[in-house]
């Protein structure tokens, strides 16, 4: 099935790309979550608008990405969350939580869709997350989850 991506999907493409995927993947995952729309002739006009919006948001060059990476890796990020007695969290830490914590710690403004949390963070302590700044630049960021 031919679809137009509306958001960046890791391993598939970025917003505005027209890609071919299996029918079930598009119908059951991408379209219901708002990551993609079905391709139509009228949808091709939407692609230009999505690409313009993406250009405004994205980091254009590798030099800019490396500069932001240096800023990110120099920031100490602490995230205060509610936790139980044994150090288990009530819920888990999301990409939006990490992006907000980076900004609160004095780091650059990072889009939550660029934050990649490997496995769900459900305990207190030090954890590692990645921020994909550019196709070739990924910043590794250590965050410390503390009890609120």
Automatic annotation (TrEMBL):
Which SUPFAM superfamilies does this chain map to?
L9 N-domain-like, Ribosomal protein L9 C-domain
Its biological purpose is as follows:
Binds to the 23S rRNA.
**Which residue ranges traverse the bilayer?**
none
- Metal-binding listed as a keyword: no
Record lineage? Bacteria, Bacillati, Actinomycetota, Actinomycetes, Kitasatosporales
Q: Which InterPro entries match?
A: Ribosomal_bL9, Ribosomal_bL9/RNase_H1_N, Ribosomal_bL9_bac/chp, Ribosomal_bL9_C, Ribosomal_bL9_C_sf, Ribosomal_bL9_N, Ribosomal_bL9_N_sf
Q: Which GO terms describe its molecular function?
A: rRNA binding; structural constituent of ribosome
What is the official name of this protein in its record?
Answer: Large ribosomal subunit protein bL9
**Family assignment?**
Belongs to the bacterial ribosomal protein bL9 family.
Q: Name one GO biological process term.
A: translation
User: Is the keyword Zinc-finger assigned to this protein?
Assistant: no
Q: Which superkingdom is the protein from?
A: Bacteria
This protein's GO CC annotations: ribonucleoprotein complex; ribosome
Which UniProt keywords are present, listed alphabetically? Ribonucleoprotein, Ribosomal protein, RNA-binding, rRNA-binding
Q: Which organism does this sequence originate in?
A: Streptomyces triculaminicus
What are the Ribosomal protein L9 domain coordinates in residue numbering?
Answer: 13-40
